[in-house]
Amino acid sequence: MKVAIGQDSHRIDYENKEKKFILGGIEFEEDYSLNGNSDADVVLHAITNAISGITCKNILGKVSDDMCKSGIKDSEEYLKEALRYLNEKIVHLSISIECKVPKISPKIEDMRKNIARILNISENSIGITATTGEGLTECGKGNGVSVIVLITVE
Predict the structure, then answer these.
(1) What is the arithmetic mean of pLDDT over 14-25?
(2) Fewer Cβ neighbours under 10 Å: the N or C end of the chain?
(3) DSSP-derived pairing of the beta strands 90-98 and 126-131
(4) Which tens digits make up the pLDDT trace of 121-146?
């Protein structure tokens, strides 16, 4: 068994009304987006980082930047790149999302289903929680979204 943690955060861009707001590969109906060169899907980025913690092969950074420069801005592709190096079986994924906006609860089941599809694991192996953190951090105050992921593999 191995366990790793992944984290990512992005600032909310309230000015960009053209870019889609995406978490866990699911589009939210918001009139703002997350700031980033890619689609800035912090959930998939945090999962990618957690897998990198297992494989010791960092994807976010030079690899994803090069992919982005070549026109690949879909974070699912970065996650799939990380999965190429994973030889272990994913047993469980725990995802904690901190933000004031958007409201996460209505999209949790859609995110679980989509992440399960990407990782080729059961939805029952993915837990997602969300919190505002009582507004104590910038994300809890509505300035961004932060995600922490714990992955267990065997």
Answers:
(1) 95
(2) N
(3) parallel
(4) 999 999 999 999 999 999 999 999 99
Q: Which domains does the chain have, with CATH numbers?
A: 2-153 (3.30.1330.50)
| CA distances from residue 98 to 44, 46, 105, 132, 133 in whole angstroms, order as listed | 14, 12, 12, 5, 7
Residues in the chain: 154
Tell me the C-alpha to C-alpha distance, in Å, between residue 52 and each of 28, 82, 137.
Answer: 27, 7, 26
- How far apart CA 135 and CA 76 sit, in angstroms, is 29
105: number of Cβ within 10 Å: 10
Helices and strands (H, E) in the chain, number of each type: 4, 7
Q: Phi-psi bin for 89: left (phi > 0), alpha (psi -120 to 50), beta?
A: beta
CB environment 137-147: b (16+ within 10 A), e (fewer): bbbbeeebbbb
Q: Are 125 and 116 in contact (CB under 8 A)?
A: yes
